[in-house]
Write a structure and sequence with these properties.
Elements: E1 7-8, H1 10-18, H2 21-34, E2 38-40, H3 41-56, H4 62-73, E3 76-78, H5 82-94, H6 102-114, E4 118-119, H7 123-133, E5 139-140
Length: about 160
């Protein structure tokens, strides 16, 4: 099967920022194929919110914030638009823990509305949202070794 674009969830982007070896290898393969990572405006908000709250609390995260801003400038950032809003409304109406999952609902809606898989470690929560709402969200996990990768070093042609 030919590679297809994926949207990186906030947690996958965080794993990349932390230097997770497997995620870095997947990102390198993805970049070789597609040229830029794909994220949502919701993920940009979630990360900026965290950095700015940390700065307000006196934590020295300005360098991480600058690195994130450079990363975002080099990504495809998918907006939350009217199509995503319609999907989000469907998911919201079926979800039970709406407030806690608002970011996940919005990110899932962007991916579903564009028919693009979502790369996340948070499969359980997203599966609960999609099961309850019936939307077709395809999930992939860049932190898990796929069977064809077993026995290879990360980055040896994924």
């Amino acid at each position: 099967m030919a590679p297809e674009p994926v949207v990186l969830d906030t947690d996958t982007l965080s794993e990349l920022s932390r230097g997770n070896t497997l995620v870095k290898a997947r990102a390198a393969s993805y970049l070789a194929e597609f040229g830029r990572l794909t994220i949502t405006a919701v993920t940009v908000f979630e990360r900026l919110r965290g950095y700015r709250a940390a700065i307000c609390a006196g934590k020295p995260v300005e360098r991480q914030l600058q690195a994130f801003e450079v990363l975002v400038a080099n990504c495809v950032v998918l907006p939350f638009d009217k199509d995503a809003a319609a999907v989000a409304a469907d998911i919201w109406s079926a979800a039970t823990c709406r407030r806690r999952q608002l970011g996940d609902i919005l990110i899932a809606a962007v991916a579903v509305s564009r028919q693009i898989p979502l790369a996340t470690r948070n499969k359980r929560d997203f599966q609960q949202l999609t099961k309850a709402s019936g939307v077709n969200l395809r999930l992939v996990d860049w932190t898990v070794v796929r069977p064809r990768e077993a026995g290879r070093a990360p980055g040896d042609g994924a």
